[in-house]
Amino acid sequence: MKVRLTYAQFEVKGVTDNYLVAYDDEEGWYCNCPDRHYRKHECKHIREAKKHLGNVIVNEVIPETQTQLVI
Question: Residue 18 in contact with residue 11, Cβ under 8 Å?
Fold first, then answer.
């Protein structure tokens, strides 16, 4: 059986502030940190959220641009 993640939300503690990291199956990954906003790349907060999801996902790489996350 496969389960499709359609939405997830995380609060990630940063060095200077806490940030909201979210995933949805239409928009992909989002973080409200300045690094993500200005540089438009995957920030360390998204990588940390993915790392925690990786404990659930077995042998599957989830690219940032993928619109569906299958676990």
Answer: yes
Phi, psi of 30 (to 5 degrees): -145, 140
In angstroms, rounded to a whole number, what is the distance separating the alpha carbons of residues 1 and 26?
22
Each residue's pLDDT, cut to its tens digit, for the chain (71 residues) gives 566 778 889 898 878 899 999 998 888 899 999 988 888 889 999 998 888 887 655 434 455 555 555 54
**Structure confidence at residue 63 (pLDDT):** 54
Residues in the chain: 71
The CA distance from 45 to 14, in Å, is: 8
For residue 61, give the amino acid letter. Answer: V
Amino acid code (one letter) for 13 = K
Q: Which of the 8 DSSP states describes residue 66?
A: -
